[in-house]
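Next comes this protein.

***
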Amino acid sequence: MSDLSDEDAKLVALAKQARARIQAKEGAAVRDDTGRSYSGATVELPSTSLTALQLAVAQAVAAGARDIEAAVVVTNSTAADHQPITEASSSPTPLHICSPMGDVVASTIVES
């Protein structure tokens, strides 16, 4: 996690907590353009399925966020669907994919 800013390291901690809280497949956290953070975990119900990133972005949008400044997904995978960021952000957004231990395994800039 040493490559990340303090603000992005906070997102990693929030995503790890969200994932651990319900032992979900993924945890995610995003920071909006005002500095507020939102987190979520994978939701898998018979009638509804959301990725952790979809939930975190949806919470930000529901709270009035106009832009996503940064995002983190904690997962066993090395990739994450960045479509929620593409749809909700109006500027290039860093997306960090982290292992369950919080180590960055991939980073990209998502274009809006």
Remarks:
- The first strand starts at residue 27 and ends at 32.
